[in-house]
């Protein structure tokens, strides 16, 4: 079973939306599981303090290394194979490729960032992988954790109705997804593109590919550049002559 453990000072935020729709049904069916642990349970003072003032001065508070380390060690001891993630605006951007890697593993342990940040020593000492869901700042990492878990859970076997649902969507092959249409045929003077109702599957596939490339090129030039670079590399590899194996010689 794929399992997500979340360390947070707001465990009541979970499962939240993960208790509904596909993720909620999949959890009820035993495909995955979730546990939210209150970081304050690992504090040692009567105020259940988990933060302190930043060394060197400055505004805000910082999550303490000792309290967080105790929580991580209790939830994910050394033999736990799951990656340890820290939701942080300075983290590496979360991509569909990384989501697929995480979904293919045994699960995740997520530390939800709060306040001004987390003591750097626990990030290094507990090998936390910092992950960001976008170039903006949230009040805390809980919403980012929900997003990350949902992105992984929907890829687990048995969660989505059709495997093709995950194979033909944005980022699956480096492109944004093509446009979708359904009934009615005519809506406010706008018709469904004729090719989609032609019954010619080859033409439909070609149209969808062209539209995916157009939308990616127009909306995400960064993705388009990466896609073109990968495409050129694939073409070069395909055209490269095969190198025959060396013949064994008597020595």
TrEMBL record:
Enzyme class at the top of the EC tree: transferase
Major place of residence: cytoplasm
Catalytic activity reported: guanosine(37) in tRNA + S-adenosyl-L-methionine = N(1)-methylguanosine(37) in tRNA + S-adenosyl-L-homocysteine + H(+)
Pfam families linked to this entry: tRNA_m1G_MT (PF01746)
Keywords: Cytoplasm, Methyltransferase, S-adenosyl-L-methionine, Transferase, tRNA processing
Compartment(s): Cytoplasm
Binding of S-adenosyl-L-methionine, residues: 113, 133-138
tRNA methyltransferase TRMD/TRM10-type domain segment(s): 4-225
Example GO BP: methylation
EC number, UniProt record: 2.1.1.228
Gene Ontology terms for molecular function: tRNA (guanine(37)-N1)-methyltransferase activity
InterPro entries per record: Alpha/beta_knot_MTases, tRNA_m1G_MeTrfase_C_sf, tRNA_m1G_MeTrfase_TrmD, tRNA_m1G_MTases_N, tRNA_MeTrfase_TRMD/TRM10
UniProt function note: Specifically methylates guanosine-37 in various tRNAs.
Subunit structure as annotated in this protein's UniProt entry: Homodimer.
Protein family: Belongs to the RNA methyltransferase TrmD family.
Name the record gives this protein: tRNA (guanine-N(1)-)-methyltransferase
Organism the protein comes from: Rhodoplanes azumiensis
């Amino acid at each position: 079973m794929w399992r997500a453990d979340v360390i947070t000072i707001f465990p009541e935020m979970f499962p939240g939306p993960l208790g509904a729709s596909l993720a909620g049904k999949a959890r009820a069916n035993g495909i995955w599981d979730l546990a939210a642990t209150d970081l304050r349970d690992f504090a040692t003072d009567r105020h259940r303090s988990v933060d302190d003032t930043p060394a060197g001065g400055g505004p805000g508070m910082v999550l303490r290394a000792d309290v967080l380390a105790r929580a991580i060690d209790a939830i994910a001891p050394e033999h736990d194979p799951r990656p340890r993630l820290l939701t942080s605006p300075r983290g590496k951007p979360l991509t569909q490729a990384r989501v697929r890697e995480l979904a293919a593993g045994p699960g995740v342990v997520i530390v939800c960032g709060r306040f001004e940040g987390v003591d750097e020593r626990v990030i290094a000492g507990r090998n936390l992988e910092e992950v960001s869901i976008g170039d903006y700042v949230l009040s805390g990492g809980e919403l980012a954790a929900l997003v990350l878990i949902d992105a992984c859970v929907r890829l687990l076997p048995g969660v989505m109705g059709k495997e093709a649902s995950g194979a033909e969507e944005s980022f699956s092959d480096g492109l944004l997804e093509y446009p979708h249409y359904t009934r009615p045929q005519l809506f406010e003077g706008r018709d469904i593109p004729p090719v989609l109702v032609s019954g010619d599957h080859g033409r439909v596939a070609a149209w969808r590919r062209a539209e995916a490339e157009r939308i990616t090129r127009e909306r995400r030039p960064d993705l388009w550049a990466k896609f073109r670079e990968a495409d050129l590399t694939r073409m070069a590899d395909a055209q490269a002559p095969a190198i025959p194996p060396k013949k064994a010689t008597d020595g």
